[in-house]
Amino acid sequence: MSRRAFTRATGLALTPLGAGLVGATGGALAVASVAVLAWGWSSGRLSLSTLGSAEAELMAVDALPEVGEGVVERELVFLPEPAGWRGGEAEPVDARVFGDAEALVQPEPTRPAVAAPEHDGPMFDGRPLKAARTMTMKVTAYSPDERSCGIWADGKTASGYSVWTNGMKLVAADTRLLPFGTIISIPGYNGGKPVQVLDRGGKIKGHRLDVLYPTHEIALKWGVQDLQITVYDYADE
């Protein structure tokens, strides 16, 4: 504080020697205050919360006097702590609001895709098959023309499907033994691949089968064969 400021504040005039004493005293008090603050902070006796409380006390306002009384009572009004302060340390109350939202969201670990087990058995219409039973049958062959089908040579099977179904690879059977839609395989026919029972005939009774060929000449080359056939069920049912 300068000599002029001291004289204005106290109404007293200072000599040069007095001003020097006042200045030295003020400097010593400032150094002591800094030392006390440093000691309090290092020893844990002083924190932002205590400083905030002290600041709140210094910011206390005077209460208004009541009407009719000559005495003015002082009442301390403490300001609330700033939002987000805990134990004197400034940190967000809710990290979800103040923090990095993307860093907080942890992605779920990806699991390696498990490949479906491969089916190494026969397939039909894209579905896996499993062998249900075997049967010994007398197998003949026929064609879709009138030499084999007579008056029923209309290009349709007894099940209502066209003779061109499955590339003309189908079978006529006794549907009391093998109903329409039964899947079977016959050695030497369609490369041994499964075919369906979609037709029947007047002479195809019991353990008899008739395999379809596109022409009468090819059907005659098949002849009559006694073969062991395999009957399938769908493996995914």
Explain this structure.
The chain is an alpha+beta fold and 237 residues long. It contains seven helices and nine strands, in the order αααββααββαββββαβ. The protein has helices at residues 3-10, 16-42, 48-58, 95-98, 101-104, 146-149, 216-222; strands at residues 85-86, 89-90, 123-124, 127-142, 170-173, 183-185, 195-199, 208-212, 225-234. The chain has a six-stranded mixed barrel with strand order 4-8-5-7-6-9. Strands 1-2 form a two-stranded antiparallel sheet.
Rg calculated over all Cα atoms = 53 Å
Number of helices: 7
Helix and strand content put the structural class at: alpha+beta
What best-fitting shape do the alpha-carbon axes yield? elongated
Strand order of the largest sheet: 4-8-5-7-6-9
Mean pLDDT: 75
Question: What proportion of the residues is helical, as a percent range?
Answer: 25-40%
Question: How would you spell out the order of helices and strands?
Answer: HHHEEHHEEHEEEEHE
Provide the low-confidence segments as ranges.
Answer: 89-98
Number of strands: 9
The biggest sheet amounts to: 6 strands, mixed, barrel
Q: End-to-end distance, in Å?
A: 99 Å
